[in-house]
Task: inverse folding
C-alpha cells in the first residue's frame, strides 16, 4: 500500500466538481457560469450576477424583476437583531459583528431542513438582502448614530451607500460600487468558500454556513489585503521616491501587498476592470495621490515581480477606490463579504445537490503504543 501523500493547504488538490466559476490564471480569465467577469462588471449588475450564480443561467426580464423585488423587500432586519448589534463593542471589528449577526439571524429565521428547496431559496435571498444592512447598521451604531432604514427604491449598490452615508450616490459612484460587488462575488474554491462547503456538507443551516465562511474571511491571509495596500502606499509616500522605496523593500525582502495570487500568474482581470471604472469616480472625487503612487509602483515592480508571475490582484486597487469614496478601512473586508455571499450560497446549494460530508485523511506523526504512567509515578 502506497503511503498517503501530504499536500499542505490542499494545494492543487480538487475537492469538488463545480459549474459555478472558472479561472485560467495564465490568461487572466475569470468566468461566472461561463461569462467573463469583466463583461458582467461593465454591462450587468450585482442583482443579475447573484441570480446567475445561484440559478446557473441569466434571468429573463421578468425573473430579474422578481428577484430584485424580493431583495428590496427583505433588506430590513428585526429590531432585536439591532439590539444585539448595539450590545457589541464599538471598538470591535465589523467582520466579527457581521459574523455574530448572521449566526443570530439563523435563530430568527429557522431553516434547518436543507432538503426544502423553497426554504433554501428564501434563506439565500434573505442573506444577500440583509448583509449590507447589518454592515451599515453596525458602522453607524458604533459611532452613536441611528441605523438607517433601507430604501426599497434603490438598487443593492445604491441602497448600501445610502445606508452608510444617508445620501444617494452619484451614477459613477453607484456603478463602481456595483462593479466591486460583481468582481468580488465569486472566485472558485478559495478558503472561505471551502469553509462554507465543509460546513454545508454537515447539513448545517444556511446561516451557519455563511457565518462559517465569514469567519474564515476574517483571517489576514484571506481578507484584509486591501487595507494593507493602503498602509504600504503610505510608506511609499513617505519615501524620497517610489524607486527608492522599492530598492529598500527589495533589500529588506518586504512583502508587496496586493501583488501575487495563488492562481493568477498575470495581472488579475478584476484589477484591470476596476482601474477602468475607478477613473470615472476619480473625475468626481479627485484623483487620489495613492492611486498615482499605486500606478507608479506597479510599473516600478513590473521588471522585478513580473518574471516571477507576480502581478497586482484585485485588492491592490479596491482599497484605493473605497478610500476615495470615504469608506473606512475596516469596512473593506465586510464589503467583500456583502459581495461574496452570493458565491458562498451558490456553492452551498451546489454542495447539497450531491452531498457527501467532508472527512479528509491525515498523516499521523505522533507517538504510538505508549504505556500509561500513573500520576504518583510521573516525574
Result:
Amino acid at each position: 500500500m502506497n503511503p498517503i501523500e501530504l499536500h499542505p493547504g490542499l494545494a492543487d488538490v480538487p475537492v469538488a466538481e463545480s459549474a459555478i466559476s472558472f479561472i485560467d490564471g495564465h490568461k487572466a480569465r475569470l468566468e461566472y457560469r461561463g461569462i467573463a467577469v469583466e463583461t458582467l462588471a461593465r454591462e450587468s449588475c450585482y442583482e443579475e450576477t447573484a441570480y446567475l450564480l445561484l440559478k446557473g443561467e441569466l434571468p429573463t426580464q421578468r425573473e430579474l424583476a422578481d428577484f430584485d423585488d424580493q431583495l428590496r423587500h427583505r433588506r430590513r432586519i428585526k429590531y432585536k437583531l439591532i439590539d444585539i448589534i448595539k450590545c457589541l463593542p464599538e471598538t470591535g471589528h465589523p467582520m466579527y459583528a457581521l459574523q455574530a449577526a448572521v449566526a443570530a439571524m439563523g435563530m430568527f429565521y429557522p431553516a434547518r431542513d436543507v432538503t426544502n428547496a423553497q426554504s433554501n431559496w428564501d434563506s439565500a435571498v434573505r442573506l444577500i438582502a440583509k448583509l449590507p444592512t447589518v454592515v451599515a447598521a453596525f458602522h453607524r451604531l458604533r459611532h452613536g448614530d441611528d441605523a438607517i432604514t433601507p430604501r426599497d427604491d434603490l438598487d443593492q449598490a445604491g441602497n448600501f451607500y445610502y445606508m452608510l452615508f444617508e445620501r444617494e450616490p452619484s451614477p459613477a459612484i453607484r456603478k463602481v460600487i456595483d462593479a466591486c460587488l460583481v468582481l468580488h462575488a465569486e472566485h472558485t474554491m478559495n478558503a472561505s468558500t471551502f469553509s462554507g462547503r465543509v460546513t454545508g456538507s454537515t447539513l448545517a443551516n444556511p446561516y451557519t454556513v455563511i457565518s462559517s465562511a465569514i469567519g474564515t474571511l476574517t483571517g489576514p491571509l484571506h481578507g484584509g489585503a486591501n487595507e494593507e495596500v493602503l498602509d504600504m502606499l503610505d510608506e511609499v509616500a513617505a519615501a524620497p521616491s517610489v524607486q527608492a522605496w522599492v530598492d529598500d523593500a527589495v533589500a529588506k525582502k518586504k512583502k508587496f501587498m496586493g501583488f501575487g495570487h495563488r492562481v493568477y500568474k498575470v495581472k488579475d482581470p478584476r484589477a484591470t476592470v476596476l482601474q477602468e471604472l475607478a477613473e470615472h469616480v476619480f473625475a468626481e472625487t479627485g484623483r487620489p495621490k495613492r492611486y498615482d503612487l499605486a500606478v507608479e509602483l506597479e510599473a516600478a515592480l513590473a521588471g522585478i515581480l513580473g518574471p516571477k508571475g507576480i502581478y497586482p490582484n484585485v485588492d491592490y486597487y479596491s482599497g484605493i477606490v473605497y478610500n476615495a469614496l470615504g469608506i473606512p478601512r475596516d469596512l473593506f473586508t465586510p464589503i467583500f463579504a456583502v459581495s461574496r455571499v452570493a458565491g458562498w450560497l451558490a456553492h452551498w446549494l451546489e454542495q447539497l445537490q450531491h452531498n457527501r460530508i467532508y472527512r479528509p485523511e491525515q498523516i499521523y506523526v505522533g507517538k504510538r503504543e505508549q504505556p500509561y504512567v500513573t500520576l504518583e509515578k510521573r516525574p
About this structure: The mean pLDDT is 95. The first strand starts at residue 21 and ends at 24. The longest helix spans residues 117-141. The chain has two domains: 9-219+337-353, 225-324.
